[in-house]
């Protein structure tokens, strides 16, 4: 495992493989991950836009 914040590049590639047939499901999965991590992550990084890009924004740029 790398030291980069999840989902790092390697994790994104694995997620893309797992959800290669359903990108909508990938976005829904990542939204759930963001929801689960929001409280902890906002304490460390108070900018919600950064969190959106980290968890969900990258899925739309593919």
List keywords for this structure.
mainly alpha, globular, 62 residues, 3 helices, 0% strand
List the helices and strands and how they pair.
Elements: H1 9-18, H2 23-44, H3 48-60
Helix pairs in contact: 2-3
Order of helices and strands: HHH
Number of strands: 0
Overall structural class, as computed from helix and strand content, comes to: mainly alpha
Percentage of residues in DSSP E strands: under 5%
- End-to-end distance, in Å? 23 Å
What is the alpha-carbon Rg in Å? 12 Å
The overall pLDDT, averaged over residues, is 88
Instruction: Work out the helix count.
Output: 3
Descriptive overview:
The radius of gyration is 12 Å and the shape is globular. The protein is mostly helical and 62 residues long. Helix 2 (23-44) runs antiparallel to helix 3 (48-60). The mean pLDDT is 88. It has helices spanning 9-18, 23-44, 48-60.
Structure summary:
The chain has helices at residues 9-18, 23-44, 48-60. By secondary structure, the chain is mainly α.
